[in-house]
Amino acid sequence: MGHHHGGRVSAVRGAAPSSASRSALHGLLAPASIAILGASPDATKIRGLLLQVLRKNGYPGRIYPVNPNHARIDGLDCYPRVGAIGEPVELALLAIPAAEIPSALEACAHAGVRYAVIIASGFAEEGGPQSKLQQRVTEIARRFGIRICGPNTEGFHNEIANVSATFSPAIDHGRAAEPIIATSRRIGVVAQSGGIAFSLYHRGRAQGLSFSYVVSTGNEADLTLADFLDYMIGDDATDAVLLFLETVRDPQTFLTAAQRALDQRKPIIAVKVGRSSAGARAALSHTASMTGWDAAYEAVFKTFGIIVASDPDEAIAIAGAVTSAPVPAGARACVVTVSGGAGAWTADTLAACGLELPELSRGLQQTIRSLIPSYGSARNPVDITAQAVHTGAFLQTIELLSTCEEVDIIVVVASMARETRVPFDTAALGRVIKSSRKAILFYSYTLPSPIARKSMAEAGAVIFTGLASIGRAVHELARRGRVTQALPISSAAVPTKLRNRLREATGTLTEHQSKAILAQYGVRVAPGILVRNRDELDEAVRAIGFPLALKVQSPDLPHKTEVGGVRLNIADAATLRVAYEEVISALAVRAPCARLDGVRLEPMAPAGIEIIVGVIRDELFGPVLMVGAGGVATELFRDVAYRLAPVDRRGALELLASLRIKALLEGVRGAKRADFQALAHLIARISSLAVACRDRVREIELNPVLVHAAGKGCSVVDALIVLEPTLPPEA
Amino acid sequence: MGHHHGGRVSAVRGAAPSSASRSALHGLLAPASIAILGASPDATKIRGLLLQVLRKNGYPGRIYPVNPNHARIDGLDCYPRVGAIGEPVELALLAIPAAEIPSALEACAHAGVRYAVIIASGFAEEGGPQSKLQQRVTEIARRFGIRICGPNTEGFHNEIANVSATFSPAIDHGRAAEPIIATSRRIGVVAQSGGIAFSLYHRGRAQGLSFSYVVSTGNEADLTLADFLDYMIGDDATDAVLLFLETVRDPQTFLTAAQRALDQRKPIIAVKVGRSSAGARAALSHTASMTGWDAAYEAVFKTFGIIVASDPDEAIAIAGAVTSAPVPAGARACVVTVSGGAGAWTADTLAACGLELPELSRGLQQTIRSLIPSYGSARNPVDITAQAVHTGAFLQTIELLSTCEEVDIIVVVASMARETRVPFDTAALGRVIKSSRKAILFYSYTLPSPIARKSMAEAGAVIFTGLASIGRAVHELARRGRVTQALPISSAAVPTKLRNRLREATGTLTEHQSKAILAQYGVRVAPGILVRNRDELDEAVRAIGFPLALKVQSPDLPHKTEVGGVRLNIADAATLRVAYEEVISALAVRAPCARLDGVRLEPMAPAGIEIIVGVIRDELFGPVLMVGAGGVATELFRDVAYRLAPVDRRGALELLASLRIKALLEGVRGAKRADFQALAHLIARISSLAVACRDRVREIELNPVLVHAAGKGCSVVDALIVLEPTLPPEA
Fold it and tell me: 3-state secondary structure string, A96-145?
């Protein structure tokens, strides 16, 4: 613990150090020579397309078709086997049937091939014996050190070095002679679906975005999404990464890369599918992947500031914003429009996305009003009117805003449908955009014409066409300014006594046992006494006092209330005795087989705001912390937030700030502000315990925690710890 | 009351009966002849564009340019004045300066012109003296009966009769020789922004949608958005209406049209802007503070099943779905895809939009599996794989699904980017679509090529390109099947005594007064006694019994708790006396000027689920009902829903079903189901009271209402009625 990456990254067991794969991948993505196994002159087939796409897009290295049935293909010598090439081959593209893959891979390895892309399907995605075939691929990769992308992949495209090792029809530079490029900052795409990988590229390029690499990772028999992510985070030519994932197969590398992206402030935009049950089924059959628990992914994304997109246009818009605009200093936006209606709609959308739309100062309004017709508006939205387009007032207004101190973001709203011109002097606009430290974004409420795309791109402007997605993109852009580098978090040391206690217990602990463990780790819990029979009641009361709570303790009854095992607000000895007898006899009827430790007597906690604090150990990512509104609100309003454990107090406060119940904690209707510090301390402590003892602890839940007024702390009303079901081997 | 339209429509005062404007508008939108005042040969100007656009789009009637500076324009005789034309003119387009408009309008009226479209700006949108100018326009319309669209409008386009009375560059049929038309069912657009009106048309047409009329209503000096809506609802050529509005100026006509649309099941899709600038009201009740202008519109939209869109692409997608697909029988969707990733993403999106994605039956799966490669999937999503496109399995699968009994909606996911072909035999696809009673929708995860747009349109298919928006569109399409015709709702008669009581009171009533009124209208409230001094305590207790609640009653203190004016769970006479003295003396300090009626003693209500029921009278739409989660949840989680009052019990139950707190009412963690019937009755009753007495009642709020277990009713814990601040004139 106390590790640099907050114990999170190192906490996950797994693969080789990431730096190895990082340097290694350069040779895969920019190979000096490529052999195509299964190459064909028939371009209606995938096997034939590979050669065609590679050449059409100007691959500068040597290409060796391999196919025993041809002597030459498309003017190139064709070889019967990869071993017959007789020259060094860096990368092999395997477009041969699945059954032939293992022997072909071995032949490649023997011939000195360093990388392979397996296009063929028919592996783990089918299940059954085909999964074994994939295991053989993995073994060959490990044995010979040949690094493999796939199987069941559409390959990759390296836009920087003109390597199009794919059959995707979306990679089609031959036709679009002059691509539209609005920005030099590049997006890398890594996707567990070839269709999505290249469709994101296809959509992004149509809008003038730049790309570095597009990688379809397929079944990930060797190289995984995390390896490519890691490579792109370390790659200077990649300025943002777009991920499409169904699962993470290598959490260690993934978390390391995510941490590095956070440190470098390189944006990652992630789309995670498999959320719905139908979606999860698709994930199973498509890449033979188990879809992880959604909340664990949410925790990972939130912890590392990964931006989540739910729609392709939204993903592209966010990627476009972060690669074409500077990170603004704040969240104050101004809308400049030629259409009042479109301006109002844009302003509403930005406000709904959490941006501020301050009214401009009198002075600035006066200056702008002198440029525009009397029926325009200079408040915010600034409506220059369609008339003012012809006078140059549009650009003058944008320039005024770009140099004022009143806003951080300028959203320009115009119709760019005309096929002859755009409403700006684009050379002058280019100068304004280039010299501005503010984010200036352009939304066309009509569909932009090709000439508008082209001339705006020359000015360095991406034209956004989706209103919802530009709203989201501006929101995320504004948040980039607030992304903070993660600080190391150290877990408090675990006392030896506590460690031993955890090694000697198994399964579901009772509240009494759970609270004892919490107390041992420095969490304040009310003094409670376990009463095993009625004769012990009086002595316990002498220690506890009235009013008190009585709660049955059984490892078989974690939900005590539902079996009538809880009595609250007991005010005197007579009531206590009746309550005791009633609870015990009720249990004898309701849960006759439950093991009974006794009842716990505890002073009644003072009133407070109900919060739930829980940690669950995720199979992939380790302990995941959940904090939220307690009581019925937890399920009803789903007002909960997730982070990877551990968090420190600052992290806990950030997490609380994201909850709607924060308003209640801050005090509504004259109520006092709640004890945020005590709650944050408790959350940090619990998350630290879960990490420090993750070899034994599966779940911790405090529910509810009652948070009292500032300075008064909080009360852990109920607690539940679930340990591994069996004792550790050495115990 | 007891009126056919539930008292809602007739409840709003206002304009002329709608049928008049309905028939009247046909002559405006399809005039036999048009005069253009201000016509010019210069097509760089708006004045010049009008003539050009009208002719280019094939207007079949007579056109009369009017401009004293020209003898002929563009081959047509030009007239110095409208009176000089000497032939009947049905419509005049006025593209002359604002100041000249009134006299020109009068000249038009004298010349027998029936309709005018005022393009000029410089009226009420500028405020000040220009508002007076607009009033003159309104007066002229009323005096001469000439019906006016505008001023400050971009005009209109009638696609059926080729009347393009606009200068919008989006109406540009000259160039796109062969428009893409995927459906014959037409969309009408009515917008308070010309830019938005024609951009919706521009975006929709690019996707193959059909339009009837596009109307920009401008400042609405005479004809309003509601008039055009009403016309289009009654128009057989219009199958759905897209509205863009900032306000409704004629609520009577609007509500009548909305009711008729509901009766006819003609979809209305509305975009309401101006949310961010909603003005604050003087708010006494929570209902009032939470019910901004926005909520009144929400109430209207919900009441009449109007679909709300927040993004242009979403609006177009919904319009495209409802005009190109039949209304499905249910919400069971099946995704058919060529890309596993795109299929999973689509399935997730549909599930998030509330659609069901049932796994297909074994039999159906077996049949589909026989058509596709082994690495495909036949569950749902059905992944036929890219390979199966070439075998015809794609269409075969769609056809199988379109005739099975297992799903209601088929979402086909494919890449349609290729510029040479689409993945279907479109003639055969057209037959499947035509014969299917199910909704079959097509999503391309790449940007569709022009050939794909064209050939899919020939098959009768719109290609959707936005994933979030197709999800929303499918959701709304599925909901169309559940839209039910509104039944007449009658308010219970108001007893004369109650009516008199309301006529004799003003302003904020105390809880005691409010509850007395509720009781008089048949709402069950606990028997409470107003105690005016300490000597009356004992007698009150004899009637009420213990435990009881003590609540201060003052018209100046509607928020009693916040001034320490409430004591609960008083169990004996001694405590009561102390509580009384404390409350009275606390008030003397905290609110020394408050008028004090006394304290209300009331039996403690049994525990229950907290609900808030409120009604606020909206200036435009009359009484608006709000129901939601009570207590802190009201503001924290905003779990509230709105309807126009009155609602009947069925309406109240529907409203409750839309709340998240419904789950709690249904009983969680073994709790009993709450008394839905009693709550629904209470809601209906309160909404009916607000409507019946809307001349006096501004606000009613019951907060909280505690809902008990089924059969146990509910308790109105606190109540607040706010009346008009002054007595009615006759009183």
Answer: CCHHHHHHHHHHHHHCCCCEEEECCCCCHHHCCHHHHHHHHHHHHHHHHC
Taking the C-alpha atoms of residue B645 and residue B9, their distance in angstroms, rounded to an integer, is 11
Beta-carbon separation of A193 and B357 below 8 A: no
What is the interface pTM, i.e. ipTM, of the complex? 0.93
Amino acid identity of residue A562, one-letter, is E
Distance CA B455, CA B461 (A): 9
Q: Which amino acid is at B10?
A: S
- Of A286-290, A722-726, B118-122, B497-501, minimum mean pLDDT range: A286-290
C-alpha–C-alpha distance, residues A588 and A577, integer Å: 17
Point out the least confidently predicted range of A30-34, A272-276, B510-514, B684-688.
A272-276
Q: What's the pLDDT tens digit per position in A66-103?
A: 999 999 999 999 999 999 999 999 999 999 999 999 99
B657 Cβ contact partners less than 8 Å away, ≥ 6 residues apart: none
CA distances from B408 to A278, A635, B402 (A): 16, 31, 8
pLDDT of A492 > 80? The answer is: no
Between helices A393-403 and A362-369, what is the axis angle to 10°? 160
Sort out which chain B residues have CB atoms less than 8 A from A610's CB and list them: none
Residue A20: pLDDT above 80?
A: no
pLDDT band at A18 (very low <50, low <70, confident <90, very high): very low
Per the CB < 8 A criterion, the answer to whether A507 and A555 are in contact is: yes
Helix ranges (H only) for A13-81 are 18-29, 46-56
pLDDT, tens digit (0-9, with 9 covering 90-100), for A210-223:
999 999 999 999 99
What the block records as the tokens of A298 is 């949410």
Closest by CA to B166, choosing from B64, B46, B28, B75, is B46
d(CA A433, CA A484): 26
| C-alpha separations of A584 from A531, A552, A561, A718, B194 in Å | 12, 8, 13, 20, 75
Residue B194: list chain A partners with CB under 8 A: 339, 341
Q: Report the SS3 class of residue A651.
A: helix
Q: Which pLDDT band, with edges at 50, 70 and 90, does B12 fall under?
A: very low
Q: Which residues of B touch A273 (CB under 8 A)?
A: 341, 344-345, 348
Structural domains of chain B, ranges and CATH numbers in brackets: 18-249 (3.40.50.720), 328-480 (3.40.50.261), 529-603 (3.30.1490.20), 609-723 (3.30.470.20)
- B196 with A419: Cβ contact below 8 A: no
**Residue B81 pLDDT greater than 80, yes or no:** yes
Give the one of B152, B198, B383 whose C-beta lies nearest to A282's C-beta: B383
In angstroms, the CA A647 to CA A653 distance is 10
CA B286 to CA B289: how far, in whole Å? Answer: 5
Contact state of A277 with B357 under an 8 Å Cβ cutoff: yes
Q: Model pTM?
A: 0.94
Candidates A196, A310, A637; nearest CB to B639:
A637
Please give the structure tokens belonging to residue B150. 């505008």
- Report pLDDT digits (tens) over A113-149: 999 999 999 899 888 889 999 999 999 999 999 999 9
Q: Quote the minimal CA–CA distance from B543 to chain A in Å.
A: 29
Tell me how crowded residue A703 is: count the other CB atoms within 10 A of its CB: 18
Distance of CA B599 to the CA centre of its chain: 44
Nearest residue on chain B to A467, alpha-carbon basis: B311
Does position A697 have pLDDT exceeding 90, yes or no?
Answer: yes
Tokens encoding B283:
């708010």
In chain A, what residues touch B204 (CB-CB under 8 Å)?
none
C-alpha B457/C-alpha A62 separation (Å) is: 44
